[in-house]
Amino acid sequence: MGRTRGTDPGVDGAARLLARLAVLAAVGSLVVLLLALGDGGLEVVLAGLLGIVLCAVGLWWFVAHRGAVRLLGALLAVAAPVGVVVLYAYDGLWLTALLLVLCWGVALACARAALRRSSPERSTRAVAAPRPERAVLIMNPKSGGGKVGRFGLVERAEELGARVILLDPSAPADVAELARGAVADGADLLGVAGGDGTQALVAAVAAEHDLPFLVVSAGTRNHFAMDLGLDRTDPSRCLDALTDGEELRIDLGDVAGRAFVNTVSFGVYADVVQRPEYRDAKAGTILTVMPDLLLGEGVRRLDARIDGTVLSSQQALLVSNNPYVSPDEFSGGGRRPSLDDGELGVLGIRVEDAAQAADLAVRGSQSTALSVLTAHRVEVTADTEEIPVAVDGEALRMPTPVVCTLRPGALRVLVPRDRPGVPAPVPPVRWRRILDLAFGRVERPAGASR
Questions:
Q1: Which of 129, 182, 343, 344 could form a disulfide with 187 if both were Cys (CB 3.0 to 4.6 A apart)?
Q2: Is 10 helix (H, G, I), strand (E, B) or coil?
Q3: Pair 193, 148: CB distance under 8 Å
């Protein structure tokens, strides 16, 4: 069926205004650049790009090498942006640079706001849920720096009629077996106050028996709770679901038969978290082992089949239960707008030298060093019989090939009716879409109703 173009009467007026402001600001940055061409405008752009490239090269040398090269990398990563600022000030270009940055910053801010307003809201459908009569909650008193005790979660849960199984930090327990025992004793709800790794183990038991699952945000980062729209600042609010809750049906990830709620990591990160010293000295451990993992004898390359697409010689691979909105998950800043799309998110990275590091810094997600995909099945292979794998942050080793799939709608999650919710994600800026919003031109199938 063909496509026609026409005015979209459904576009929000504020979205159209923001799109026009974005276009105006982008044009303004071009005008500033053109007017300043004779007075160093081109120098501003070239110096800025050079500063970004040199900073990326310095960071690569700092992470991937030791000794004198690492020291040189640290100096370059700091000196490059400082040098650009000094150049702007010395040549009297700081005002032009400031105007360009302001115009482009306004353009991006307005563009993102316009795209956010024009995108249809996507939320997991919630249904009314009966109050559980025999809820069982497993709580880790050490998780999140002692949030269970600090927020009085045991007392609060017992006041609401739940039975609490408090883990003993000095005697590690099999939480999955504890959950199965609770089911055998007649539990009609399973819940966890702990980290995402523990959440996943108990969630698998809840899904197996089609029982509702309660997430209490008592972990350190609480990525799963964040993407469910729960309150991460006060985990006691999650317990309100026991008396006034509603149910969400979401997907559950599966890696070699083990459930995961957030991500499975292969490659560099999975290698690092295997080190016993990582828990107590994360930054020091990373700096110590990275040169070997990236360029030395410890180099490990991964191959993956993403449905029908093949990724070769990847240094790091991250597979997520539903896609993250941007590659920022590598830095811990990503989030998933929904957990029931029925697809895995895949991020692959391959940076082998300073040139590729610079390309990634300048081009971002458009760089050949970064692959962003979605899939229903991911198969990871390597030239060894088993590889390190980090499942929701837990360090494991699994025989190759390692297969990741998704169990659509497998998990029933009980959440409080009154919760912060999931904020609208910041979409990637696509200027063709911005122009369509600004000037009322959209594509639609021929013959479609308006």
A1: 182
A2: coil
A3: yes
List, in sequence order, every beta strand (DSSP E) within 82-227.
126-128, 135-139, 163-166, 189-193, 212-216
Q: Which of 165-169, 273-277, 296-300 has the lowest mean pLDDT?
A: 296-300
Higher pLDDT, 313 or 440: 313
**Can you tell me which residue has the tokens 């390359």?**
301
Compute and round to an integer the Cα radius of gyration of the chain: 25
Candidates 154, 150, 151; CA nearest to 139 is 154
Backbone angles phi, psi at 162, to 5 degrees: -90, 150
Q: Which of 37-41, 308-312, 424-428 has the highest mean pLDDT?
A: 308-312
Predicted local distance difference test score (pLDDT) of residue 64: 81
Q: How many CB atoms lie within 10 A of CB 282?
A: 13
Encoded tokens for 19: 């799109």
Is the model's pTM score more than 0.70?
yes
Task: Calculate helix-pair angle for 431-439, 94-118, nearest 10 degrees.
Answer: 70
Q: Where are the alpha helices (DSSP H) in 364-418?
A: none
Q: What's the whole-number mean pLDDT along residues 338-366?
A: 83
Positive or negative, the Cα torsion across 141, 143, 148, 153? negative
Candidates 379, 370, 311, 368; CA nearest to 344 is: 379
Tokens 């353009």 sit on residue: 107
How far CA 61 is from CA of 233, 282, 367, 383, 429, in Å, comes to 38, 19, 19, 27, 31
The answer to whether 244 touches 418, Cβ cutoff 8 Å, is: yes
Counting Cα atoms < 13 Å in the Cβ hemisphere of 409 gives: 3
Average pLDDT of span 397-426? 90
Tell me the per-residue pLDDT of 7-20, one tens digit each, with 9 for 90 and over: 444 557 888 899 89
Rounded CA-CA distance 230/222 in Å is 9
Structure tokens at 181: 């025992």
Could you give the CA distance from residue 226 to residue 247 in angstroms, rounded to a whole number? 16
Q: 336 and 345 in contact (C-beta within 8 Å)?
A: yes
- Give Dmax over CA atoms of the chain in angstroms: 81
Each residue's pLDDT tens digit, 159-170: 999 999 999 988
pLDDT at 11: 59
Report which DSSP code applies to 380. E
Structure tokens at 301: 């390359």
Going through 330-401 in order, the beta strands assigned E by DSSP cover 344-349, 370-375, 378-381, 386-391, 394-399
Q: What is the mean pLDDT of the chain?
A: 85
What lies within 8 Å, CB to CB, of 444 at 6+ separation is 3, 4, 5, 6, 8, 450
Query: Hey, what are 217's tokens?
Result: 């945000």
Task: Report the alpha-carbon distance of residue 266 to residue 277 in Å, rounded.
Answer: 19
